[in-house]
Amino acid sequence: MSRGHYYVGLDIGSAEIRAVIAQEISFEEPLRVVGVGTTPSFGMRRGVVVDTDSVAKACNSALEQAERMAGHPADNVAVSVSGAEIACQNALGVIAVGRADGEVSEDDIARVLEEVQARLTMPLNREIIHVIPKDYRLDDQKNIKDPLGMHGVRLEMNALVISSSTSHLKNISRSLEQAGTSVESFVVEPIASAEAVLSTKQKELGTVLINIGGSTTSMVVFEDGDLLHLSVLPVGSGHITNDLAIGLRTSIEVAEAVKLQYGSATPDEIGKKEDVDLSIFDSQEDALVSRRHIAEIIEARFEEIMHFINSELKNIGREELLPGGAVLSGGGALLPGAVDLTKRVLRLPVQIGYPKPLGGILDQVDTPQFATAVGLLLLAQANQSHKHSFAPGKMLGIVPAGIHDMMNSIRRWSKQFLP
Q1: How far is the CA of 56 from the CAs of 37, 39, 187, in angstroms?
Q2: How far apart are CA 9 and CA 77, in angstroms?
Q3: Neighbours of 385 (CB within 10 A)
Q4: Cβ of 355: how many Cβ atoms within 10 Å?
Q5: Low-confidence residues of the chain, pLDDT below 70?
Q6: Whole-number average pLDDT of the chain
Q7: Which domains does the chain have, with CATH numbers?
Q8: What is the rounded CA–CA span in Å between residue 227 and residue 132?
Q9: Which DSSP category does 395 fall into?
Q10: What are the beta bridge partners of residue 288?
Q11: pLDDT of 271-322, one tens digit each?
C-alpha cells in the first residue's frame, strides 16, 4: 500500500447513512479518520432500496460532508449490505490434490473454492456476496485451518456462503453511480460490525454480535474463531418509535424525541409518579404521559427483538451456550436498560460494543452507531489494494488478478474469521 492511501466506508442504513473516509499512513499504524458524514436515510425500507433516487441523494449528502472534512474525494467505496433477504448456507467442496507428491498447493485451494461455488444451486435472482472458508479436511484429518503445504490425496473445504438479492445489489450500485461514485466492495453489515467490535478472543470463545439498526436487527455468531451463523431480522429500533407514537397518540417525531430523551427498557427502575410533558417537544401537544408507561412500551418491543435473537441461537444449538456472551452495537444498543434486558432474555453476559480505536478525529466515530462504517474501513485496509476491485459473485467479493493474487486474498480474508 502506498503512503497516504484512502479508504471510504459507507453504511447505508434505513434510519441514517454514515460515510467515513480514513487515510492509511502505514500498515502498522491505525487508520486515521479524516472525514465523516451523516444524513437521514431516505428511500430505504427494512434495509432494502425502494427508491434509488432518494438513496442516491442521501448517499451524496453523506459523502459530500465526509469529502469536505477530509479534503479528498470519496471514490470507490466499501458499502454495507443489509435486509431480511440476506441468507447464509453451509457449502462443501471436494477435489483431488493435483500434485503427484500430494502436496497441497495454492492452485488446489483455488480449485476447491471453485468447487464450493459450482456445487451451489443459486437461484437466478440471488447473488453471492461472500464465500468464507471455515475449515478444511485433508483425507482423514479434520478441522485444518490452512492446508497449504500439507500432504494428502482428497481435499475438502467447508465454507459459509452469504448471498443477497441481485436486484438489491444492483439498486445500491445504481444509487451510488447517481451519487457520483462507485461500489468497490459489498460487505454484509453484521460482518463489518463484528470486524470493528469483536476481538479475536471473543470470536474464539463464542460470541454473538447483535447490531440493532433502525428497521433491521442483524446478528452474527462466532465460535472457535469461525463465523458460525448470520441472520438479519426485519425489526429494529424504529419499530419502538412506531409503538410509542401509537401508544402515546403522538407524531413519529415526538415519539422519537421522547425515546431518545426519556426512553428506557427497564420500567421497574422508573418511579410510578414520573411524568413527561409532551409540549416540550411540540407546542401543539398538551398531554402528560407516564414515563413508566413509555418504558413499558419500549420494553415490550425490545424484549420481542431479543426473543427473535434467542430463537436464532436455539436453532443453531447455541442458546445460553456462548461463553463470550452477547455484544450490542448500532444505535439501539445505547437505549438505557438494553444491556440488562438482553441479559435477562438471552441469559448470557452482555456488553455494548464500541469500534476499535483509530487515529484522527476519533471522537466522531467512537460510538456503537459507527461500528459498521469502521468495520468497512478495517476490512478494506486488510483485503484491498490498488490492483484489486470487488464485485459480487466472487470469492468474498474479490476479483483476483491471477491465481497467486487470489490465494493471497483468500488467506487474508480467512485470517479475519479464523484464529
Answers
A1: 14, 12, 19
A2: 6
A3: 14
A4: 25
A5: 1-3, 384-419
A6: 88
A7: 5-83+166-198+355-394 (3.30.420.40), 87-163 (3.30.1490.110)
A8: 8
A9: G
A10: 277
A11: 888 999 999 999 999 899 999 999 999 999 999 999 999 999 999 999 999 9
